[in-house]
Amino acid sequence: MKTIVLASQSPRRKKLLSLLYQDFICHPADIDENLPYDGNPDAYCRNLALLKAKEVATEYNDSLVIGSDTIVVFKNKSLGKPENAKDAERILGLLSGNTHSVFTGVALIYGSMEISFSVETEVVFHDLSEIEIKAYVATGSPMDKAGAYGIQDDWGAVFVKKIIGDYYNVVGFPIQAYYKMVQDHFPSFSPEPQNQLH
């Protein structure tokens, strides 16, 4: 039986993938994600996505395994998940009033076939006050997110002045690019419109 396997424990990726598929398996990859950033965001996030997919694919036959990794890049430096509240405030201070890029790498493995790609979205932040930053950090929401914010959060959303590119890519999974890639290369796993009327 053909199955879809998401090599991630991210609730955001799970939610986005559920827009395309009613049934799939979540199997987080057990790899070291703290690879040194080499200054090439496209290759970096694609490589991590591929490592995740490869690790999980060894346990599944006749399945499409999806690996994914998202990084936030500002002035060619990768801003990972904050180490603590003070670090989250520092990161948000850097992003305040500036433009940064969000890269999400996606790797697809089915049998011996491997494909990877990445999508970039530019995000422009409003100027943030110290009070706004501290209030958002106090919610705890930034702590598990690259770049110390979630565009889908109540607070994180109001920080964003505009985006250039795919919104869902910033959330954590570029479903538009994924949909096209699966249609072109893995048509038997291509999502179909789900009947939302019950």
Q: Distance between termini? A: 26 Å
- Chain-averaged pLDDT: 92
Give the helices and strands as they follow along the chain.
Answer: EHEHEEHEEHHEHH
Return residue spans where pLDDT drops below 50 for at least 5 consecutive residues: none
> What percent of residues adopt helix (DSSP H or I)?
25-40%
Task: Indicate the CATH topology.
Answer: Maf protein
CATH architecture call: Alpha-Beta Complex
Question: How would you describe this protein?
Answer:
The protein has 198 residues and is an alpha/beta fold. The protein has a single domain, classed as Maf protein (Alpha-Beta Complex), CATH 3.90.950. The chain has seven helices and seven strands, in the order E-H-E-H-E-E-H-E-E-H-H-E-H-H. The protein has helices spanning 11-17, 41-57, 85-95, 130-138, 154-159, 167-171, 175-185; strands at 3-6, 25-26, 63-74, 77-79, 99-110, 113-125, 160-164. Strands 1, 2, 3, 4, 5, 6 and 7 form a seven-stranded mixed beta sheet that branches. Strand 1, helix 1 and strand 2 (25-26) form a beta-alpha-beta unit. Helix 3 (85-95) packs across helix 4. The chain is elongated, with a radius of gyration of 17 Å. The model has no long low-confidence stretch (mean pLDDT 92).
